[in-house]
């Protein structure tokens, strides 16, 4: 199993995203996950085995490695990608719920639905309005939050975005201050800067998407204020439809129960 | 280890699950299996190779590692993930059994084969109980075997052939502790989801029973319309949306 499962989930949400959301998804998969899998993991592969300390004291290397690398960059990036992808689950849950409701309504109106009709319903793009707008905006806010938190954690744990060649360690059982040398520091620095820049770009895309949605919502609101009759007529029409469906549903339920027992 | 097989098998379970069950499946695959595969397995990869003891005595490291890590965390989690996922297969098998019955008798025996009612309800409920039991058992085994959820960086070992008390150093203890917490928290979240799902099933089942009872009562009134009983049935009908039925029955 690899990142395929995540790709499946996010690919499903992609249909209902804005254009900026689609760009964000491509950046995530091409510039982050692929780079992580193809390049960064081979660079960090020998991080502990090639971490050497200038001492023969057993245990000193382990302790110093643990002190300077409490959490490997690779694992931090993997967790970051997993966490920033999970708000999309909220969106996909909402979409699934709405599609289920629409399917029920359609079945009541025209009876049994054909497979092609169900597939067409599934493939239909949902408009980002109403409650779905709030779900989508919440997911973007969480994405921005996770992005910021993980970037800050990386900066805080390693005191910046650069990998030093030499670290000085005096943790027990090292007998005194020993020099420890990190494997491939320059290559690691390049990848750290690259992944940080991509993370920044994703954060900016999320902020841009948020602004886009807010502006769109404001424009919609001002349009409603200028054309209120159009809105109230459509709301009344929707309410009438729902009442009709509810009364049909109640009658059908009772008729079914009566036929079962008689 | 290929987890794709488990994912393929469980994707079939999704169709017959409740809403909470689908959330549980997503949490399982994203927060547990994915984190386990992309992160935790790699962190525990070199656990024995980088386990160092402050002694040149041959065999001392092996014996101490075996004493402090009888079963690796990574293997315990793999077992836990497999055992927790398999009860869902019982549900798929039960639906398959219903399909087999319909084919055998060549008529429609069930309104909806995947609907969680009757025997399938009990199978589903039992699978939830089993899953919750497995989660609790593994959490307890982990806590008991490693005396908590922290991996120390230094262990003191005096088992033969180590000559005396030697210091042994664990590889990546901080990173391992962080992942241990991740997996324990996600296990706790899954337990909560299972309990919510069990509660949801019980409440839904009780509501169905109450609805059926109120409909039966309304039908009994069809034969003898007692005014007080009629009002009671009407009140119940109002609540369950069967009002028109009870009124129309009595006017027949």
Protein architecture, described:
The complex is a heterodimer of chains A (262) and B (252). By secondary structure, chain A is mainly α. Chain A has two domains: 3-228, Gap junction channel protein cysteine-rich domain (de novo design (two linked rop proteins)), CATH 1.20.1440; 231-261. Chain A has helices spanning 4-14, 19-43, 60-68, 73-85, 87-110, 115-123, 131-158, 185-226, 228-261, and strands at residues 52-53, 166-169, 178-181. In chain A, strands 1-3-2 form a three-stranded antiparallel sheet, with helices on one face. Chain A is elongated, with a radius of gyration of 27 Å. The mean pLDDT of chain A is 81. Chain B has one domain (4-193): de novo design (two linked rop proteins), CATH 1.20.1440. Chain B has a three-stranded antiparallel sheet, covered by helices on one side. Chain B has helices at residues 4-11, 19-43, 60-68, 73-85, 87-105, 119-145, 173-223, 227-240, 243-251; strands at residues 52-53, 154-157, 166-169. In chain B, helix 5 runs antiparallel to helix 6 (119-145). In chain B, a hairpin with an 8-residue loop joins strand 2 and strand 3 (166-169). Chain B is elongated, with a radius of gyration of 28 Å. Chain B is built from nine helices and three strands. With 252 residues, chain B is mainly alpha-helical. In chain B, 30% of the residues are buried. At the A-B interface, helix 1, helix 3, helix 4, helix 5 and helix 9 of A face helix 1, helix 2, strand 1, strand 3 and helix 7 of B. Chain B: This is Gap junction protein. Chain B: One of its GO terms (cellular component) is connexin complex. Chain B: It is found in: Cell junction, Gap junction; Cell membrane. Chain B: Residues 134-201 form the Connexin cysteine-rich domain. Chain B: One gap junction consists of a cluster of closely packed pairs of transmembrane channels, the connexons, through which materials of low MW diffuse from one cell to a neighboring cell.
């Amino acid at each position: 199993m690899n990142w395929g499962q995540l790709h499946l989930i996010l690919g499903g949400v992609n249909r209902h995203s804005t254009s900026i959301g689609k760009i964000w998804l491509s950046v995530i998969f091409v510039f982050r996950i692929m780079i992580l899998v193809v390049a960064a993991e081979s660079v960090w592969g020998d991080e502990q085995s090639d971490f050497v300390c200038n001492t023969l004291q057993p245990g000193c290397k382990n302790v110093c490695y643990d002190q300077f690398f409490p959490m490997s960059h690779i694992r931090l990036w993997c967790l970051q990608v997993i966490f920033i992808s999970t708000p999309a689950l909220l969106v996909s849950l909402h979409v699934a719920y709405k599609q289920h409701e629409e399917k029920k309504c359609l079945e009541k109106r025209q009876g049994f639905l054909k497979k092609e009709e169900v597939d067409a319903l599934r493939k239909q793009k949902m408009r980002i309005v109403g409650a779905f707008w709030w779900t989508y905006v919440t997911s973007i806010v969480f994405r921005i939050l996770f992005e910021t938190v993980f970037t800050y954690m990386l900066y805080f744990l390693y005191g910046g975005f650069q990998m030093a060649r030499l670290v000085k360690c005096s943790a027990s059982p090292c007998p005194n201050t020993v020099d420890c040398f990190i494997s491939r520091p320059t290559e690691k620095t390049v990848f750290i800067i690259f992944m940080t820049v991509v993370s920044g770009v994703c954060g900016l895309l999320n902020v841009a998407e948020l602004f886009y949605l807010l502006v769109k919502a404001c424009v919609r609101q001002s349009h409603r204020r200028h054309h209120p009759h159009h809105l109230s007529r459509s709301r009344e029409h929707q309410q009438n439809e729902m009442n009709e469906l509810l009364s049909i549903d109640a009658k059908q339920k009772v008729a079914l129960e009566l036929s079962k027992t008689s | 280890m290929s987890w794709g097989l488990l994912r393929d098998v469980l994707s079939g379970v999704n169709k017959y699950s409740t809403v909470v069950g689908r959330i549980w499946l997503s949490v399982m695959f994203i927060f547990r299996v994915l984190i386990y595969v992309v992160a935790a397995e790699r962190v525990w990869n070199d656990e024995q190779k980088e386990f160092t003891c402050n002694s040149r005595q041959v065999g001392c490291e092996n014996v101490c590692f075996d004493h402090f890590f009888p079963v690796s965390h990574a293997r315990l989690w793999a077992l836990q993930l497999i055992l927790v996922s398999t009860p869902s297969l019982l549900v798929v098998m039960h639906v398959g059994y219903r399909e087999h019955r319909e084919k055998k008798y060549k008529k429609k025996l069930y309104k909806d084969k995947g609907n969680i009612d009757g025997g399938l309800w009990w199978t589903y409920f039992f699978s939830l109980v089993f899953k919750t039991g497995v989660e609790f058992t593994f959490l307890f085994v982990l806590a008991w075997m490693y005396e908590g959820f922290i991996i120390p960086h230094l262990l003191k070992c005096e088992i033969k052939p180590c000559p005396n008390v030697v210091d042994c150093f664990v590889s990546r203890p901080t990173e391992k502790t962080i992942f241990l917490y991740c997996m324990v928290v996600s296990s706790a979240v899954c337990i909560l989801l299972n309990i919510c799902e069990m509660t949801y099933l019980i409440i839904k089942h009780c509501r169905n029973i109450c609805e059926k009872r109120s409909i039966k009562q309304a039908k009994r009134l069809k034969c003898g319309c007692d005014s007080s009983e009629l009002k009671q049935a009407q009140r119940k009908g109002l609540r369950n949306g069967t009002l028109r039925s009870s009124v129309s029955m009595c006017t027949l």
